[in-house]
Every structure is written in structure tokens, then in C-alpha cells.
Amino acid sequence: MKTIITTKNAPAPIGPYNQAILTGNTLYTSGQIAINPETNALVLDSIEDETKQVMQNLKAVLEAADMTFKNVIKSSIFISNMDNFTTINAVYGSYFDEANAPARETVEVARLPKSVNVEISIIAVK
Description:
By secondary structure, the protein is α+β, with helices and mostly antiparallel strands. It has helices spanning 47-64, 85-93, and strands spanning 2-5, 20-23, 26-29, 72-79, 103-108, 118-125. A 6-stranded mixed beta sheet has the order 1-2-3-6-4-5, with helices on one face.
């Protein structure tokens, strides 16, 4: 059985997908980019602000499923330029307790939706 998770506090899907799917106790989120859900505008002022918006969007989806970043077991980070890794990693890391941080991969890709710099998806378990 799957439950579709949706919240107005994260960007609405722009295609045939949902913000997240809960199956059993496991939540699978779609990738989030730095769209401010209130204005529908991209947040690209700095890589820090962009990454923070991505994480805030993920936080909103987690909250809609009654979870927090403590429930995250796996993250996938896609970045358009590995030179931004240190900055992205610092912002991302501020949302986790390092001793209990999730597994993850970080991959440089040729291009991301809307030509953003970072996209992150997560898997979480209650």
C-alpha cells in the first residue's frame, strides 16, 4: 500500500510525480530543487541560500509525513559543479547529527532541472 505525501510548504510537482510516497514505514521523496513554495521562484542568490531552500523543502515533505531529518537513512545529492561540494556539504550537514547522519552519494551531473546547482532526494524510515 502506498500513500501519496503532499504539502503546500514545498514546491508542487511540475510533472507526473509526487512530492513523496510513503509505503509501509518508508518514505521516498522526489528530488527537491530551490523553488520557494510561497513565490514559486528559484532561490539562486548564493549556493548557500540555494542549498538551504532545498533542505527546507525536504524538511516540509518530511513534516508532512510526520518525520524529521532524524528519520533519514539515505540521501542522494546531485550537483552541477563539484567545486560547490564544500559549501553544499556544510549546509546539508547542518541539518543532521554527524554521528547519526544517513548514507549518501554526491554526484556531479551535466545539468539539473531549471539549470539549478543542486538537487537532493532522501529516503526516510519511521
